[in-house]
Inverse folding.
């Protein structure tokens, strides 16, 4: 028994983290879907799901049960083995990418030397799930969706990769933990040093996760549902799980590299220490709202569910507040870094996802040639210029002794000028093409 | 113990997938097994603490090149390859050569084991920050070959664009 414990010790913590991630992610994905539907409803002046549970709070669980019980249809002419395995590839790869991410200083499966590169590289394998699923369905819609998806992923991966290179130049390391540590040392998040890089990564990450306005691989009006046209029931749900996991992964990359990871805003400044109470306060406000809504629920059981949610939030508030209230030095006080780190990290990821959804409900879908133009003729050149600009800023700062602000300010302005020129040139070309088209 | 289990898992996976690559009739299935073989090799790299090599293998071979392979294969009709003969008349010659080569390797390892630098692992912590090490060496000691290779790749890329496009 003793030897077994000794044997298991080094792998125990990562194992627990891994189990937590695999167990919790489907639930999280379900609630992201609910949040998205609620937000969409709000922006379109509707109510959204309201029936299952108070304010539709139990909708994801009902959906999951429905998807599990649905018939799993495999088309007669499909390549069965590949059809069967393709969604699994997507999900496995998406979850594997979570392994190197640090959700707070305490919660990380593995602090790899290659950190972000691992997340990017493994994430890129998800394309196989899509391509193979589309091909094996033996349907034209699926194949076209898969081809579009592959082309799109390959195109935007370049821009996203170059944008990340910009951030990595600042950090000087690939390990997620050390990247956040560097931002702590600098006292500033990298989004302020490389705003253009963050913008490029944000756009490219939307395209990489096949979200609107870049959701051409599953454009309903053209391709039914793209690569997952022939999928139903549980396998379809797996694709959806993979998509939402990928969203969490790209949001986590952006959070780690540009938004300071688990750092609180103004982490180094004593004057802003009152922000430590914000997490608990936020939870209490939500709990208060839940209790305020309880009497307005029509059914007893819905009232009970909402009250339970409120109590849960109060419990969370208590857990987050506990390390602040006890004197320093005890175990509970030490837990502050882990708990609050996880809170800030998840809050930033949530805000990033919120922007994703906001953009989805705001912009109409791109045309495929517009998508390719944006990727190759705007984002890729701009990302290369961005890398050179950051390199220049680092040289100015480290070897010529410029301050941070003038060095990064100058290069950001330069990069923005190039961006403006690229946009202007693209517009002009587009106009010329339109004129030529009219004449022809 | 655990090391050996992991190694044999990846090794067996790599060998079986490699055999499957050449024996499957369906080209897409062959491509999938090739991906598996490449990933299994990447796993062995990882076990050797060559993390950078691992991720390069995953990104370049499994992620980049294989995507293009699968792309091309998917657009090609499968029926032709399904009806083709898998072996030509020289199969016995190939088998013979493979056996001879295998025997040679086995004998070479078995006989010359004492002389070969086998079983001498590097000190565990020697290559710890392998990514930094690779970067430093690449941009200092081998900067000229590195730059020449990148220019070569750039030329190849531009050449491909020029050949593929009728009007630029």
């Amino acid at each position: 028994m003793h030897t077994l414990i000794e044997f298991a010790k080094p792998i125990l913590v990562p194992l627990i983290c891994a189990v937590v991630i695999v167990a919790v992610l489907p639930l999280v994905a379900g609630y992201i879907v609910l949040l998205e539907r609620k937000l969409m409803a709000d922006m379109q002046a509707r109510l959204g799901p309201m029936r299952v549970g108070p304010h539709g709070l139990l909708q994801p669980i009902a959906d999951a049960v429905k998807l599990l019980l649905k018939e799993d249809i495999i088309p007669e002419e499909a390549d069965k083995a590949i059809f069967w395995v393709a969604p699994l590839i997507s999900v496995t790869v998406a979850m594997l990418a979570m392994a190197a991410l640090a959700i707070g200083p305490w919660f990380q499966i593995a602090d790899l030397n290659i950190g972000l590169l691992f997340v990017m590289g493994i994430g890129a394998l998800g394309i196989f799930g899509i391509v193979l699923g589309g091909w094996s369905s033996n349907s034209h819609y699926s194949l076209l969706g898969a081809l579009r998806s592959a082309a799109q992923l390959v195109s935007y991966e370049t821009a996203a990769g170059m944008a990340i290179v910009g951030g990595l130049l600042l950090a000087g390391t690939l390990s997620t933990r050390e990247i956040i540590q560097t931002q702590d040392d600098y006292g500033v998040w990298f989004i302020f040093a490389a705003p253009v890089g963050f913008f490029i990564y944000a756009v490219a990450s939307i395209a990489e996760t096949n979200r609107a306005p870049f959701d051409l691989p599953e454009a309903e009006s053209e391709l039914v549902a793209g690569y997952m046209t022939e999928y139903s029931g549980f396998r379809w749900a797996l694709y959806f799980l993979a998509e939402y996991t990928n969203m969490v992964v790209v949001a986590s990359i952006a959070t780690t590299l540009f938004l300071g990871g688990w750092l609180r805003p103004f982490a180094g400044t004593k004057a802003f220490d009152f922000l430590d109470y914000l997490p608990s306060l936020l939870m209490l406000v939500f709990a208060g709202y839940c209790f305020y809504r309880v009497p307005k629920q029509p059914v007893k059981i819905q009232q009970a569910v909402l009250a339970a949610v409120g109590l849960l939030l109060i419990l969370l508030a208590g857990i987050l507040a506990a390390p602040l209230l006890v004197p320093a030095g005890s175990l509970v006080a030490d837990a502050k870094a882990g708990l609050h780190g996880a809170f800030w990290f998840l809050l930033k990821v949530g805000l990033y996802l919120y922007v994703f959804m906001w953009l989805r409900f705001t912009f109409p879908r791109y045309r495929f040639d517009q998508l390719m133009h944006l990727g190759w003729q705007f984002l890729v050149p701009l990302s290369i210029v961005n890398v050179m600009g950051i390199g220049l800023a680092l040289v100015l700062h480290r070897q010529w002794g410029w301050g941070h602000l003038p060095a990064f300010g100058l290069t950001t302005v330069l990069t923005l000028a190039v961006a403006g020129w690229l946009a202007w040139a693209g517009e002009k070309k587009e106009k010329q093409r339109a004129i030529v088209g009219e004449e022809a | 113990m655990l090391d050996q289990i992991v190694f044999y898992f990846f090794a067996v996976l790599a060998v079986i997938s490699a055999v499957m690559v050449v024996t499957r009739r369906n080209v897409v299935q062959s491509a999938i097994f090739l991906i598996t073989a490449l990933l299994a090799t990447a796993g062995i790299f990882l076990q050797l603490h060559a993390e950078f090599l691992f991720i390069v293998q995953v990104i370049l071979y499994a992620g980049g090149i294989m995507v293009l392979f699968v792309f091309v294969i998917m657009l090609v009709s499968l029926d032709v390859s399904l009806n083709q003969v898998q072996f030509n008349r020289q199969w016995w010659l190939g088998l013979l050569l493979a056996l001879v080569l295998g025997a040679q390797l086995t004998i070479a390892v078995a006989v010359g084991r004492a002389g070969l630098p086998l079983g001498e692992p590097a000190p565990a912590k020697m290559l710890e920050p392998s990514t930094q090490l690779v970067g430093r060496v690449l941009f200092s000691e081998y900067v000229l070959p590195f730059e020449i290779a990148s220019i070569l790749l750039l030329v190849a890329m531009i050449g491909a664009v020029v050949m593929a496009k009728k009007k630029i």
